[in-house]
């Protein structure tokens, strides 16, 4: 019985390790926006690239493989495998590991397909140096990799971001759907009466320390003019738009992870004067 348990445990751990060879960030992405494909060469089962210094290139064929002459083909010339297209070069991310490389793209634009095709087919690729060998020499490449991609979760409460994928250097809007808030003290707010308390948590990439940016404390939020939310007089929703990196004043070494927020009335007396919902909103990579 112990041998069986150990065997099952080994299989589970092996599967988990395999799953970490490659991943996509952000998770559950909007594939009409930039994403990053990450590969940890130290965990690849085909180790022919593991000890090479790089640079590395992706070689991709799903959801669509670009034809020769398209400008996006995997390789150039009559021996394409020995001459990867420079637009497919990857970048190293030493913060994630000594052998972690990534490629950034907007999937629908890069593959020239619909978002539905990306979600249904996933992204298939391998990683290789510019000269992948072959033609009598050993191939230099990882195993074939497929990343299944789940669409963004569409369920949301009455406080939510648009677009659903928040990026540090792209404008985001936080909406508060006041008409559907069930907190009786927050019903029928007037223009100028809603303020957003918000903070952003992340990591300093140099020290590894957790860092929190907060424009104002919850109790002082109504004294900060940049936290006042506008009101759409047609829908009754409140909103505030900002560029996260500038709004919070991120340092160059800061890597954001998530924002946490809630809405309060300008005049706050007790908990009935705030939303009970306090969502945590993930922040992706630019």
End-to-end Cα distance, whole Å, is 49 Å
- How many strands appear in the DSSP assignment? 15
Largest sheet strand order: 1-2-5-4
State the shape.
elongated
In helices, the fraction of residues equals: 10-25%
Structural class: alpha+beta
Could you tell me the mean pLDDT?
89
Count of DSSP-assigned helices: 4
Characterize the main sheet: 4 strands, antiparallel
**Global Rg:** 24 Å
Output the helix-strand order: HEEEEEHHEEEEEEEEHEE
What's the structural domain tally? 2
Low-pLDDT residue spans: 1-19
- Strand-residue fraction? 25-35%
Structure description:
By secondary structure, the protein is α+β, with helices and mostly antiparallel strands. The protein has two domains: 2-147, no CATH class; 159-282. The chain contains four helices and 15 strands. The strands form four sheets. It has a four-stranded antiparallel beta sheet with strand order 1-2-5-4. A four-stranded antiparallel beta sheet has the order 8-9-13-12. A four-stranded antiparallel beta sheet has the order 11-10-14-15, with no helix packed on it. A hairpin with a 7-residue loop joins strand 4 (91-92) and strand 5 (100-105). It is elongated, with a radius of gyration of 24 Å. Residues 1-19 have low confidence and may be disordered.
């Amino acid at each position: 019985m112990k041998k069986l348990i150990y065997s099952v445990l080994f299989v589970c751990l092996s599967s988990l390790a395999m799953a970490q060879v490659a991943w996509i960030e952000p998770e559950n992405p909007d594939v009409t926006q930039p994403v990053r494909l990450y590969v940890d060469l130290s965990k690849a089962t085909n180790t022919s690239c593991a000890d090479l210094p790089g640079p590395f290139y992706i070689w991709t064929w799903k959801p669509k493989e670009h034809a020769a002459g398209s400008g996006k083909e995997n390789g150039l010339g009559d021996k394409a495998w020995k001459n990867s297209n420079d637009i497919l070069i990857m970048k190293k991310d030493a913060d994630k590991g000594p052998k972690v490389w990534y490629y950034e793209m907007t999937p629908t634009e890069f593959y020239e397909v619909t978002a539905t095709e990306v979600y249904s087919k996933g992204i298939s690729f391998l990683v290789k140096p510019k000269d992948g060998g072959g033609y009598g020499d050993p191939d230099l490449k990882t195993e074939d990799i497929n990343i299944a991609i789940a669409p963004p979760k569409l369920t949301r409460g009455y406080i939510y971001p648009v677009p659903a994928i928040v990026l540090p250097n792209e404008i985001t809007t936080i909406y508060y759907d006041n008409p559907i808030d069930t907190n009786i003290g927050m019903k029928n707010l007037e223009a100028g009466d809603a303020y957003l308390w918000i903070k952003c948590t992340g990591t300093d990439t140099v020290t590894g320390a957790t860092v929190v940016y907060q424009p104002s404390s919850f109790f002082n939020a109504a004294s900060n003019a940049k936290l006042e939310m506008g009101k759409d007089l047609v829908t009754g929703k409140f909103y505030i738009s900002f560029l996260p990196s500038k709004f919070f004043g991120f340092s160059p070494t800061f890597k954001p992870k998530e924002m946490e927020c809630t809405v309060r009335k300008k005049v706050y007396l007790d908990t009935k004067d705030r939303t009970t919902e306090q969502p945590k909103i993930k922040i992706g990579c630019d």
